[in-house]
């Protein structure tokens, strides 16, 4: 099993196509993975959770 890796916000934005404000709004609604604190003022997201989020979005397209 591969080791988990973390993605910083610019990468998450690029991979999801969402803005910072849209990401944080989706987190508040419980629709987007929560970030992991990695420092006093820094967060990152678990790459596999972002991959799963993207997969769910793709599956929603097929269900619509």
Automatic annotation (TrEMBL):
Gene3D superfamilies: 1.10.238.160
A Pfam family reported for this protein in Swiss-Prot or TrEMBL: Phage_AlpA
InterPro entries: AlpA, Prophage_regulatory_activator
Protein name: Transcriptional regulator protein
Protein source organism: Salinisphaera shabanensis E1L3A
Taxonomic lineage of the native organism: Bacteria, Pseudomonadati, Pseudomonadota, Gammaproteobacteria, Salinisphaerales
């Amino acid at each position: 099993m591969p080791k988990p890796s973390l993605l910083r916000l610019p990468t998450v934005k690029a991979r999801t196509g969402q803005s910072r404000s849209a990401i944080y709004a989706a987190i508040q609604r419980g629709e987007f993975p929560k970030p992991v604190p990695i420092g006093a003022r820094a967060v990152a997201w678990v790459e596999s959770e972002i991959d799963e989020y993207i997969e769910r979005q793709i599956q929603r397209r097929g269900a619509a």
